[in-house]
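batch_manifest entry 22 of 60
target: 2-methylcitrate dehydratase
source organism: Podospora comata
requested by: lab member K.T.
priority: normal
notes from requester: please return tokens only, no post-processing; we will run our own comparison against the previous entry in this batch. if the run fails, retry once and flag.
--- input ---
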Amino acid sequence: MSAVNRGLRQATKSLHTRLPQRISQRSALPLLSSTFKTAAPLTPAALHARRSNFSTMASLQSAATTAPSPAGHKGYDPEIQDIADYVHNKPIDSELAFDTARWVFLDTLGCGLEGLQFKECTKLLGPIVPGTVVPNGTKVPGTPYQLDPVNGAFNIGAMIRWLDYNDCWLAAEWGHPSDNLGAILAVADWITRTNKAGGNLAGGKIFTIRDVLEAMIKAHEIQGCLALLNSFNKVGLDHVVLVKVASTAVVSKMLGLNEKQTADAITQAWVDGQSLRTYRHTPNTMSRKSWAAGDACQRAVNLALKVLKGESGVPTVLSAPVWGFYDVLFKGKKFEFQRPYGSYVMENVLFKVSYPAEFHSQTAVEASEKIHAQLKAMGKSAADIKEITCRTHEACVRIIDKQFKPMDNFADRDHCIQYMCSVMLVFGRLTANDYVDGSEAATSPLVESLRKKIKCVEDPQFTADYHDPALRTISNGLTVELNDGTVLPEVVIEAPLGHRLRREEAKPVIMAKYKRHLEPHYSAEKVQELLEIGQNPKKLEAMEVDQYVDLYVSENSKFVN
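--- output ---
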């Protein structure tokens, strides 16, 4: 007998010797003490009944049959109940929300296709085991891949987010609600293909694009409303936690989970390990920031599928003392809410129309474009600039003000307001290729020297307007002083082209952006077909998801291996 086993037996023997004496000394446990009294022998039936009472499975089955719905379940955190109730019971009747969702849907798919042109993105895509094709699985647009819905959610989510060019939501927390499309489209496509092949997922549901748009509206709303007053970045957490929570909620409903099961899945998303923002900031800025949303999407689908198989939830995952989310990760603060869940976020979401640039810089880059034209008209150039003052808002200073920090890679450059403005001032353009190592912009001595001449200064009014629900502007103002002492008038832009206040102005540009992203992948005929469908709301919304996704399949893509 090993020393360990001898020790265990000794401890067990000692415990058995002391336990009755200790229990009898504790008046608080009279019922437990009574179990040590002599009892009559049990019949086989009684013995079976007693064992059943202590069976783990019997306890689970009993709980399953008696558990009330979230609305009457006192154990669930109300924040969890509210999300589950919204997903299952709130109809979306805003045509503005559906119309905006259609534009977001097309724009987001286009951004994903554009991401496929970058090898750093495509090297992460495809099946885990090369060559695997999942029958009736999720098809990944722009590729030949057909994957399980978990990996499909990662693939679609990663390519969408890669270039930081899809929509944006700015509040106490920042983020990109269309990231959720990675999970939504993957699950809708998989369920639809499976059911058409004779399966019975989600009651045999065949999803249409209208269903996808509704799921997007609700995912946008959950992520956006949680972000309005709650700053996750201030406690070091990345905003993709909200993608995971929102995707988990809507995907649960899509999978056919009931309201209680959806609440369970949401709690699993909150208890899941949350990403740190470390990979977004110097000195650790790197490409994980481009696939973090894809990771959130795959985690959401995976967690919802686990609940579908019978996994339970963690009812007080947020509020549990010591071990809950609030105490462990949110400095003991509870979430605050500005408004109930509806369709506000989709109706007011921001499009990245003009430049593939972090959104807090969009108006600064637009101002830089105007200044570039002004300098050209004066017979001058960026080389004549002595210094620039950028009047801006607090979030811009905290996230992308990197005046003297080294630009080591793509991830550094596309999150540095000084670099983005400098490229526009020097070249009169800003494209995704300008962030690539070794590119003309990345190796330009003039860009490097000019970015160190751009100083950001917070304007409290700009910050207030940024948080004002009636405005939500993202203002920047640039004042340029030239080497000869000339000071140009400040160029201020408050709302970027993709803002709600400029939505109609933006729509033709959004469609042109979508077309531009389609063209490297498909024939002129296919591009025209997709454009016509996208601009016909009734036809698009009525299409079954698998039929629409098939239009994007590229069996011989030149961008993926």
